[in-house]
Design goal:
By secondary structure, this protein is an alpha/beta fold. It is built from 23 helices and 19 strands.
């Protein structure tokens, strides 16, 4: 059956498993909207393309499925490039499909015109391509979904000209019976076998676990069995939190970025880094600290090749590697490998780092503790670039991975609210909460209207310390007189109510806890306004 290509693409996305699209229609991409309802896809109308992108990101992180967004030529694509950059840096599967102009070289002054739209998008995503035919569009969609499944998932962009979108096209290729997507690369078992012999003779083995391990729901159980058989110490990146049971006695928690961890890791004689870039935002220093035998396991060859000091570099899926490692350790009983790590020293170090975190950004730890008491272990948290999140993601133990979502790499403000909306749409009745600072919240505050429109039961913790406190602290530490770190804020509760949302301004921690519990049951979002004087 022939349809305009824009409609065929929506039907193809539905056939490939897409049930939700985030976006904003415009005169250039109306053909993309012709087939959405007919295909049975839900469209979520954002208030800004940046919001649409963050919603797609939050949806993808919560569900594990690709987040898809439709935007217009020029400014629409530019507006979503920030979320595309965030998804790229944080390994989130996001597909952005946009319109583009039919001709730009010989015709100037057109609506939404850019000099090179495709090239601009490519600076912040994995790849950006223009489909000039229906066949090319279909191939690019399948290429994107295949790479999401078989490589490091990152944002991708497909653009189609206005004319091509409206052209009648044959139906997309059917999904072959029994068709499976490509799979992630796996580490050869012989390489793992060789590692076990080294591991068995180590006295201070250490695992460093990153966000590349969290995608598999069985990851935590596999990690636990490996740790129990090896008596290895373990530390996670912020993105890897929840992979280790908080009660495991040799767990260093998520304190990888503490300065003392460089010396601590230097004591290890066997280090395995699984699924982590060990990027600046993971460690905030240049070196991990390991001087002994170090193994890097990652699906990204670029990451592996950058670690020239590693003793072994293995390309493969992190969870599959840990499963194979567990199988190779079957001959070892739990706790049969002796270790020189001291659980009391580790516990003492973690207490000290927690106190240091509390001192560095005073007053946030007790508020975070009180919040954790009432949200439960299964809540999905979306946080913004705010001091509240910087503190909480170090001291808040997670009982399961892939629950705390933060704009780690690109580090953009305005992430929390729209990403939480996308996450809530993806998980339905499961609890979701957003944590934002007063300044970052205003980047995407308009998306509150989407949460009201959809009736989402979404608590939004708004931390207002009246300034860009992190930047002020940075200026003071650099001996710069604080400048441009304060701005006029609105009455946030009245602003939320103007959209039809609920609001609360608790004066005590107990009142905050009661407000959060009520917000999970409310019909619609609730802004919970928290200030430092709550203590």
């Amino acid at each position: 059956m022939k349809r305009p290509l824009g409609a065929q693409i929506s039907h193809m996305l539905k056939d490939r498993g897409v049930d939700t699209i985030f976006g904003i229609p415009g005169v250039h991409n109306v053909e993309m909207y012709r087939g959405i309802e007919e295909a049975g896809i839900t469209h979520v109308l954002a208030r800004h393309e940046q919001g649409a992108g963050f919603m797609a990101d939050g949806y993808a992180r919560a569900t594990g499925k690709p987040g898809v967004a439709y935007v217009i030529t020029g400014p629409g694509l530019c507006n979503i490039m920030t979320p595309m950059g965030q998804a790229y840096s944080d390994s989130v599967p996001m597909l952005v499909i946009s319109s583009c102009l039919d001709e730009v070289a010989a015709k100037k002054g057109q609506l939404h015109q850019m000099k090179d739209q495709r090239a601009a998008a490519e600076t912040v995503c994995d790849w950006s391509e223009e489909a000039k035919t229906a066949e090319a569009a279909y191939q690019l969609v399948d290429r994107a979904f295949g790479e999401f499944a078989s490589a490091r998932p990152r944002s991708k962009h497909i653009q189609l000209s206005i004319e091509v979108l409206g052209t009648l096209a044959d139906k997309f290729p059917a999904t072959p019976v029994g068709r499976t997507l490509p799979e992630l690369p796996v580490v050869e078992r012989t390489a793992v076998t060789a590692l076990v012999s080294v591991l068995a003779n180590s006295q201070k083995p250490l695992l460093v676990l990153g966000g590349g391990v969290i995608r598999n729901t069985e990851a935590k159980n596999i990690v636990a069995r490996v740790l129990n058989r090896t008596n290895a110490a373990v530390v996670t990146t912020y993105a890897g939190r929840g992979l280790v049971d908080p009660d495991y006695p040799l767990d260093f928690g998520a304190f990888l970025a503490k300065e003392e961890m460089e010396e601590t890791i230097g004591q290890a004689d066997f280090v395995i880094v699984v699924g982590s870039e060990l990027a600046e935002v993971d460690m905030w220093r240049d070196k991990l600290g390991s001087e002994g035998f170090r193994v890097r396991v990652d699906i990204d060859q670029e990451i592996l090749s950058s670690d020239t000091e590693a003793s072994a570099r293995l390309c493969g899926d992190g969870v599959d590697f840990l499963m194979t490692l567990e199988e190779e350790l079957i001959g070892f009983d739990d706790n049969s490998i002796e270790t020189l790590w001291n659980k009391d020293e580790i516990a003492r170090a973690k207490r000290g780092w927690r106190a240091e975190t509390d001192a560095d950004r005073a007053g946030i730890v007790p508020i975070a503790d009180a919040l954790r008491e009432v949200v439960g272990d299964e809540v999905r948290i979306y946080s913004d670039m705010t001091q509240f999140a910087y503190v909480a993601k170090e001291i808040w133990p997670m009982n399961r991975p892939n629950l705390w979502h933060h704009p780690y790499g690109f580090g953009t403000l305005g992430y929390a609210l729209p990403a939480a909306i996308g996450g809530k749409i993806g998980v339905g009745d499961a609890p979701v909460i957003a944590i934002a600072g007063d300044y970052g919240f205003q980047y995407t505050v308009q998306e509150l209207g989407v949460a009201v429109e959809l009736g989402l039961s979404l608590p939004i913790i708004l931390w207002d310390n009246g300034k860009l406190k992190e930047i002020e602290d940075c200026m003071v530490n650099s001996q710069i007189a604080p400048n441009a770190v304060q701005a006029l804020n609105p009455d946030f509760c009245k602003l939320a109510e103007a959209w039809g949302a609920h609001s609360a301004h608790p004066k005590t921690l107990v009142e905050m806890q009661d407000a959060v519990k009520a917000a999970f049951d409310a019909s619609g979002p609730t802004l919970i306004y928290v200030t430092p004087d709550i203590l």
